[in-house]
Write a structure and sequence with these properties.
single chain, mainly alpha, elongated
Length: 113
Amino acid sequence: MSHHHHHSCEHCEHQEDHCSQCCSCSCHDSDHHHEGHEGFSHELLEMADDAWMEVLKEKIKEQILATNGKKLDELAKIVASSNEARWKYKKSSLGLCHDYKQKIQDFFHKESN
């Protein structure tokens, strides 16, 4: 959706047809009330662009799931189970390390008595 202004944009030094490209500047009228509406209308257009991209992203996700969903399920399962095993190993390693440190501490504590 494009909107055009039929006056020159002195602040941005654009011609009439190109003024719509500089909507973010406050060059559209000397009337501040109009500038506020112009800025807001530009924000709404930016919001619409963002929403369009979000919808497109969701549609792309749907296509990926439709064409590769089973493979992605397999991959996710592999990654999740590997991650779980990794954390179990880390936890057991931490436990072993803690046990080792405790044994060393106990050894030196006994020696001093």
